């Protein structure tokens, strides 16, 4: 989901930073104090945790570059295509953990698997916060705590996660799994029909807009599975909402200087207004087409789907966050207010964007690795008795190569783990980390470093995940993170992407319609107006189901 963050200083913002630096020498002096890596005196350290009368251990933060006034070390990151490359380079100088100040925000970057585990697991409760970016508030109705992925940890968050568990992690013998399987079969069939029409209408060798169709398919899987509702491919309103979700997903995967330099906000005013209206339009659509209908027909004791389950948690309409906190010690008394229900549904429905984008990346990789596509198609042929039937969700365990292709796409796309924030004074690797410090977990290093993956680390090779015909994932491969804030949608990602990719390749060969397909580094998202793809129908594909 929802799941990453970068900051490239855009040129307009860069100019503003420069002029701000040039103009304001007074600001420089005061900002210098604000941007320096926190140096806490022994006296402050005493108040931060040691008992009176005991000689305080000197505060000892991780080493790191000294930031400039106002911008801190943002300029170091601007030199690379993605900031995680800068983090990997800086780790060669400062080690597996280092401090860096971005704007005036104290940050720590953790580079090795051992230390990433310390942050996410051993000290998970200390690092349950999220960055306080204004952009996040704007996206989520003025309060980022409305969002499951961008809120700080709380009992409410624990409850929201637990309510969704059965739907996000459907067990093989559960009603949810059966529903998902059925939905995937029917939605992938409809996608193939749609793509066949588009391909027939396209001039020979010309690419089609695969992304829009695949995003619509994924969105329908989610609304069908979670809300028992689906929308036609020619439904313009739905098409617009799918596009808005995708634009938000792309935006959330970008980073902006304003995240760390909030005084740049005037430059971004129009963009922020746009983000706000995108979110509002999506929520209005969800209320109008899904929630209103569910509320008028639901039976609280007999929920039909995830939407009913969420609505059945709705307490008194006047219920607010405080009630939820008060009820949190009794698991039977979870109660959500209207906003919690609406935003939780929006968050989960929005998960389709992450999957659609991941699938586009997989297709992009396959266009330049036709032998991988041929291997998948051979696996499909064997499992479906010479393509005499469509691929179904239940085939997943018998198709390790297809599964491995998705893992390899996840590895190379290397979606960054959303930064965590220390919610208390704590330590990592013996270094002190102050409450409020933002922590970047460099899983880009874990995903592409030859130290972990050997000389061919940058080659797209699904076979690296297969040993003796079985999927084997190294423990340092954590595309969905780990610990109490790990991704809630990872099983849905595995299930939905498996059936969609296999169905696509059972029915079509994919190839590029342009010379070079550019897949952004360290980011699952591809731009909303993505590369076009040539689909060639396969003669051996099964008839429509
Ligand atoms: C390509 C697909 C996806 C990738 C690579 C991905 C990855 C991630 C990562 C790295 C995190 C941050 C974990 C952390 O901070 O430690 C995350 C959080 C989250 N993801 Fe995903 N995700 C994907 C798809 C989904 C989908 C489909 C859903 C929902 C259906 C989803 C729901 C969430 C939620 C709710 C969180 C926040 C959990 C929390 O903070 O408590 N994700 N995801």
UniProtKB/TrEMBL annotation:
Q: Which InterPro entries does the protein's record reference?
A: Cyt_P450, Cyt_P450_CS, Cyt_P450_E_grp-I, Cyt_P450_sf
Q: Which UniProt keywords apply?
A: Heme, Iron, Metal-binding, Monooxygenase, Oxidoreductase
Instruction: Check the record and name the Pfam families matching this protein.
Output: p450 (PF00067)
For the ligand (heme), the binding residues are 487
> Which Gene3D superfamilies does the record cross-reference, listed alphabetically?
Cytochrome P450
Cofactor annotation:
heme
List the molecular function annotations (GO) for this entry: heme binding; iron ion binding; monooxygenase activity; oxidoreductase activity, acting on paired donors, with incorporation or reduction of molecular oxygen
> Which protein family is it in?
Belongs to the cytochrome P450 family.
The protein's name in its UniProt record: Ecdysone biosynthesis protein
Per the UniProt record, the source organism is Daphnia pulex (Water flea)
């Amino acid at each position: 989901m929802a799941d990453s963050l970068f900051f490239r200083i855009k040129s307009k913002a860069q100019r503003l930073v420069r002029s701000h630096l040039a103009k304001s020498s007074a600001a420089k002096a005061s900002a210098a104090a604000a941007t320096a890596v926190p140096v806490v005196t022994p006296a402050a350290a005493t108040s931060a945790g040691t008992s009176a009368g005991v000689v305080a251990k000197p505060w000892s933060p991780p080493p790191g570059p000294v930031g400039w006034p106002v911008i801190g070390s943002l300029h170091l990151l601007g030199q690379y295509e993605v900031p995680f490359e800068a983090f990997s380079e800086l780790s060669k100088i400062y080690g597996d953990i280092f401090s860096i100040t971005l704007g005036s925000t104290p940050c720590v970057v953790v580079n090795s698997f051992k230390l990433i585990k310390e942050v996410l697991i051993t000290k998970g409760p200390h690092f349950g916060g999220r960055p306080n970016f204004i952009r996040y508030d704007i996206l989520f109705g003025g309060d980022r705590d409305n969002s499951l992925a961008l809120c700080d940890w709380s009992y409410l968050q624990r409850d929201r996660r637990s309510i969704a568990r059965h739907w996000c992690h459907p067990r093989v013998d559960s009603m949810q799994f059966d529903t998902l399987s059925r939905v995937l079969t029917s939605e992938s069939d409809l996608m193939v029909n749609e793509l066949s029409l588009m391909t027939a209408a396209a001039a020979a060798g010309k690419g089609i807009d695969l992304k829009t169709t695949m995003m619509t398919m994924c969105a329908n899987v989610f609304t069908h599975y979670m809300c028992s509702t689906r929308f036609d491919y020619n439904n313009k309103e739905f098409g617009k909402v799918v596009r808005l979700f995708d634009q938000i997903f792309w935006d959330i995967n970008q980073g902006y200087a304003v995240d760390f330099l909030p005084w740049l906000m005037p430059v971004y005013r129009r963009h922020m207004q746009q983000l706000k209206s995108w979110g509002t339009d999506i929520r209005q659509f969800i209320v109008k087409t899904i929630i209103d209908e569910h509320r008028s027909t639901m039976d609280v004791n007999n929920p039909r789907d995830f939407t009913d389950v969420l609505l059945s948690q709705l307490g008194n309409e006047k219920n607010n966050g405080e009630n939820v906190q008060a009820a949190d010690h009794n698991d039977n008394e979870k109660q959500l207010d209207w906003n919690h229900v609406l935003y939780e549904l929006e968050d989960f429905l929005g998960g389709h964007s992450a999957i659609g984008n991941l699938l586009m990346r997989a297709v992009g990789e396959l266009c330049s690795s036709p032998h991988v596509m041929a291997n998948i198609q051979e696996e499909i042929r064997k499992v479906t008795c010479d393509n005499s039937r469509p691929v179904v969700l239940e085939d997943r365990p018998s198709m390790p190569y297809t599964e491995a292709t998705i893992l390899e796409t996840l590895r190379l796309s290397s979606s960054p783990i959303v930064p965590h924030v220390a919610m208390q004074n704590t330590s990592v690797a013996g270094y002190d980390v102050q409450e409020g410090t933002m922590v970047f977990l460099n899983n880009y290093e874990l995903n592409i470093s030859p130290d972990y993956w050997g000389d061919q680390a940058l080659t797209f090779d699904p076979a690296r995940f297969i040993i003796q015909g079985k999927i084997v994932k190294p423990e340092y491969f954590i595309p969905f993170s780990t610990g109490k804030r790990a991704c809630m949608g990872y099983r849905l990602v595995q299930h939905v992407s498996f059936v969609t990719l296999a169905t696509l390749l059972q029915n079509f060969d994919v190839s590029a319609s342009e010379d070079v397909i550019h897949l952004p580094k360290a980011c699952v998202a591809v731009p909303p107006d993505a590369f076009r793809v040539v689909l060639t129908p396969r003669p051996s594909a099964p008839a429509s189901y």
